[in-house]
Amino acid sequence: MSILHVVRHGQASFFSEDYDRLSELGRRQSRLLGEYWVRQGYHFDRAIAGPKKRHRDTALETARAFADARIPFPELETMAGFDEFQADQLVAHSVSELSTQYEHVRRLHETYAAAEEQGERKRSFQKFMEAVTVLWARADFESPALEPWAGFSARVYAAIDQIIAASASGSRVAVFTSGGPASVAVQRALDMAPDKTLELIWTLRNAAEVEFLYTGNRFTLSTFNSAPHLPTQDLWTFR
């Protein structure tokens, strides 16, 4: 039996000009994950990151804990299949087109656009994103510039299949990615509907891990949203 650890990236820079950059807290979360893995005595056969900077930097911060403990950690690979869905394009499409087609989307976007206080901006943006991703996952609209849900989930499945096919028995593999691919991995294990899969994305903490057991054709969920390395709520974030 082999083990796959799928890690959501540490806290990124939400509402900044460059979201794809770990915050200082995000770096700390990632480092704490590495320190926890060292204490657990984990030895990894492969380490894979999605193509975003926040994916790679989460992996590198985690790996530093192994370096400090003088424990080998695999050279980091990059796998495009573990990229996040196209959130920026989805938001742009929602503003330009969905707001004219769906009254509830228009109202949610207006509420977000009018929000001034930081907490309210985050809450209103979350409601807006939940609404438009449901429409996207149900294929209620299409755009040549936007990867459909079916394509997104298929490439994540394919990336997982590549790992399974290349793994020797008893392998331990770490994947550093985003909430979308991590939740789609759960979808694969549990044969979940897209709308239920989307619900998982919004609950997954930064630097939390989802663990799977696999061998041959078997791919089983072991733990979800596991974060014993983040013991206090001041370390919990969701962006």
Taken as a percent bin, the fraction of beta residues is 15-25%
CATH class of the largest domain: Alpha Beta
Poorly predicted runs are none
Proportion in helices? 40-55%
Our Rg estimate from Cα atoms comes to 18 Å
The helix-strand sequence is: EHEHEHHHHEHHEE
* Count of discrete structural domains: 2
Q: What's the arrangement of strands in the largest beta sheet?
A: 3-2-4-1-5-6
Largest beta-sheet details: 6 strands, mixed
Folded structure, characterized:
By secondary structure, this protein is an alpha/beta fold. The protein has 2 domains: 2-83 and 147-235, Phosphoglycerate mutase-like (Rossmann fold); 87-137, no CATH class. The chain has helices at residues 24-40, 53-68, 87-101, 103-114, 118-137, 149-166, 179-190, 194-201, and strands at 2-8, 46-49, 76-78, 172-177, 209-215, 218-226. Strands 3-2-4-1-5-6 form a 6-stranded mixed β-sheet. Helix 5 (118-137) packs antiparallel against helix 8. The longest helix has 20 residues, at 118-137. The two termini are 32 Å apart. The model has no long low-confidence stretch (mean pLDDT 93).
